[in-house]
Amino acid sequence: MFRPVTFKQLPGWQSADLKKSLETFQTSCRAFVKQNPEQIVGTDHINLQVKDWQPACYAALKINPVTEKDAKLFFQEWFRPVEFYDKETGPGLFTGYYLPALKGSYTKSKEFSVPLYETPDDLITSDLGMFFNDLKNRRIVGRVTKNKLVPYYTRAQINNGALNGKAKVLVWINSPIDRLFLEIQGSGIIELEDGKNISVGYDAQNGLPYTAIAGVLIKKGVMTKDNASMQAIKRYLTEHPKQLHKVINQNKSFVFFRKMAQDVALGSQGVSLTPGYSLAIDKQWIPMGTPLWLNTTRPDSKNPEMSKPMQRLMIAQDTGGAIRGKIRGDVFWGGGDRATLIAGHMKNAGHYWLLLPKHAIPRFTKL
Questions:
Q1: Which parts of the chain are coiled coil (predicted)?
Q2: HEC string of 92-108?
Q3: What is the pLDDT of residues 130-176, one digit of tens each?
Q4: pTM of this prediction?
């Protein structure tokens, strides 16, 4: 399944500046060094424990200040690049996400009538690995009714009032379209009526499958794969209010939020994300904290219809409902207009190589 390669085989590695990549990896390391060494942090395909990362992490955290030279020497000393290798592995897909800024209120009103819900008390998550060994790392989400675990409410049911009186509202915002994209991004900043800001982030999900709205609109014939950007989707939904709920309710997935202590985006690893260097991945395939050499393109910030080469060492620090597959990633671009523009238009083919701890390589490859 894995094929080892040399650093010289990574396109663009020789001329890469890895300073920011190492600083981003250090944020993951601060989490690793606090964890139980025996804790499993790998996947079904990459068997890793915290102790596999800790030696490299202790070495990484000693590098201060970080220089370009030290960063490259560090990664080449502690890691070995490998790639997924089988007949089914082709070019991957890489998209972008950002930290949205919305307006909201703690009080429901005519303007602010769309709720961001906290996680409901009746939402139950069950680890199936506790019951069946072959279902390790598999979870099921639902609610109990008449002593039976059943699927949780769909987006349509929630939009029709299924959670009224059953879940606390964290804050009210003014657009179901903005709520949908906040769910996709995973976190955001809400500006309240008094001018103060609160940070909200992903807390839980209803366990139902994610359906991309872009795919719905493409199937509907109103967009193509080439022009289905975030900006185009928002524009269509805004201009066709009668179609709004019919379209977005086809995505049964629904996200619940919590108030964050700081105004930064936190990834699934529990660390702050670094714009341009943190990558959301499919944790079924890629372990959290893994450095990944990414070779793709990204939209030009001045002309998003044009693409620029992107060869960069990313760190896997987040996940997302739409991120599924061996070679699939979502680049975090931060907040602001530039980040929104790049993230909204990014949908590019590419490839990545995993940098795994050298001592662990024999477990996955025949060298």
A1: none
A2: EEEEEEEECEEEEECCC
A3: 788 777 767 889 999 999 999 999 999 999 999 998 899 999 999 99
A4: 0.80
